[in-house]
Amino acid sequence: MSVRRLIAGNWKMNGLSHDGRALAAEIARRAKGLGPAAPEIVICPPATLLGAVIEAVRDSPVRVGGQDCHAAPSGAHTGDISALMLADLGCRYVIVGHSERRQNHRETDAEVAAKAARAHASGLSAIVCVGESWSEREAGRTFEVVTSQLAASLPLLSAAGNTVVAYEPVWAIGTGRTATPAQAGEVHALIRRELVARQVTDAASVRILYGGSVKASNAAELLAVPDIDGALVGGASLNADEFLAIVTAAMDAL
Ligand code: PGA
Question: Is the pTM of this model over 0.70?
């Protein structure tokens, strides 16, 4: 199966104008030299930097995404950003249902699905995140949790053209503790089976990203696993060398 891989950097709440612009410009500069075998590269900076990052990557293959959006098209939602605003600015993607949103903002699967549906309606691709906690894994509930999150977080009309799934075990995010290729691989295979079973359009081509302490030193072994079609990278995406090494690993693993 040859889907184009995707490496997405989630900057989270990091970056001020000068360093954010410089990092994006450096990633764009290096991405231009990678050629046609390069994976799709997406940067998801904080909302305050979206304009600057879009400007900095303008003449490069690098695309930009938001880290979240509201489920409503517009209205009285102080502090929120709509999917249409992201699209209007030039974003192509938006992350929804990241575990930090699910935990810190108590977002439910239904809200995540509504956000993804709004992203689709606004012309964005949604990167829908799912993943179990450590206690759920220890209790042997990983498959059950991921299956139910996926079923309830993917809106109708999800398709390979508008949806990316990110498997991010909560215990691996920002902890330096990565899922082993075997642990990640069995969940990615499960997600693929679920996408097929749920008759998601072009299910075989939906990119399924692994996220959770991905770095240059472990990217190659993870990206060599079937059904790991890319990575959602947090901490390591804040360093151009690390991030580009992950991008390169995605090319080598083809
Ligand atoms: P991390 O974050 O790479 O810093 O673990 C990944 C994520 O939260 O998307």
Answer: yes
